[in-house]
Amino acid sequence: MVRLPGEARSTLDLHFGGPDLVPACLAETMILAAEEEFERKSLGGEVKSENVQYFVERAEALGFEVLDG
Cα separation of 16 and 25, whole Å? Predict the structure, then answer.
C-alpha cells in the first residue's frame, strides 16, 4: 500500500482503505509517468535491484509514502 502525495486522490474506489491509498504496482506506474522513465518496469521475475532503489528514491522525492502492513 502506498499513500499518494499531497492532495492527490484516486477517483476510482479501489477498496484499499481510502481515496489516498493505492497498491504499490499502481504507484510504480504513476512514478514512471511522472518521471518519464518508461524503460524502467517490474514484470514478474524481471525485477532489477537498481530499479527497486530508483522507485524507493523517486517515491520519497515525489511525496509517496510506503505503508507497512
Answer: 13
